[in-house]
Amino acid sequence: MRPSVAERFGGTANGATGYGATVTENDTWTHVVHAPGRVNLIGDHTDYTGGLVFPMAIDRGTTIRYTPGTDRVVLTSDADPDPIDFTLPVEAEPGTVTPVWGRYVAAMAAELSSSTGIHGTVSSDIPAGAGLSSSAALECAVGLALGSDGTPTDLALAAQRAEHAATGVPTGIMDQLCIAAATAGHATMIDCHTLDITQVPVPGEVDVVVEFIAHRTLVGSAYADRVAECARAESVIGPLRAATLDDISRARHHLDDIAWRRARHVVTENERVRAFASALDGGDYDRAGRLMDASHASLRSDFETSTPDMDAAVERLSTTAGVFGARMTGGGFGGCVVALCQPGALDSGWVVHAARGAHHR
Ligand code: GLA
Predict the structure, then answer these.
(1) Which pTM was predicted?
(2) pLDDT by residue (tens digit) across 317-330?
(3) Which of 63, 127, 296, 331 fits a disulfide with 9 by CB distance 3.0 to 4.6 angstroms?
């Protein structure tokens, strides 16, 4: 029998471990916040050019139980024996904080200019490094715990800046905005230029299945290269969010082959997001699945963010009876693949459900 994700990732909410001086499992916390992870159904590597994305917040997430007060942030995690402990206002460069997960916390505290701290525990059942936005969930949960009281978009933009400060990777807005703004039962279609959100119901008559392939980190990956390659394409074509396939054809001999293929992915992917939303809305799951397959092919060949293992998994999944389509999801270079299928069609991976965005409990 395949190990469950929790088994493979070393357990879920086991409570705080190995640290008892300032924070213990027995403390009674007065507040609870929760932020979900997300899986992207279609529309990858489009957000940082202001394109369209179609992520779904999932029923796995990060929970912080805490008590506000004092000028310190003291948190333990069920995934790390080392606590984080720093004084507000944050003085350290967030990218230098240890343990590493503390970087997202410190960066978020710096973004919000927080002066009231929190003591508490963090637990998460989103596997880290799996492309399911564990860091964005942590940022959004920390933002709420530190008193962020703006709109979901305000929270998401602060969390995105925190992600940049913590990692140095120029990621887009998709993960944080989906996690901040999602409503239960819906995917979160986002226009990453206007930040307009359309909540699209995810029909109960299909399963969304996520399968973990390999750990990855976007730090030191070719993610930043992809952002630069898209900028290079835009310097010739103009904003890719507004470009057509004709514009791409015309640019063929004015751009290097890499930038040209990156641009072709972005323009065709934006189109696929629109088509996917209407296929889902119309109950045309065969078409929705074919669009996911085409998205994967484009990410594999034009955008080159897939891996042989992800390609093999997508091939296996998309040729399984009852599966409408499958694709890599998120930043790529490892992480997870996602499939849309008839209920119960797959016994690998795990079925995820469309969850509500970050909230106080
Ligand atoms: C990561 C980034 C997002 C997005 C995806 C690819 O998840 O954080 O902003 O660019 O990769 O779609």
Answers:
(1) 0.92
(2) 999 999 999 999 99
(3) 127
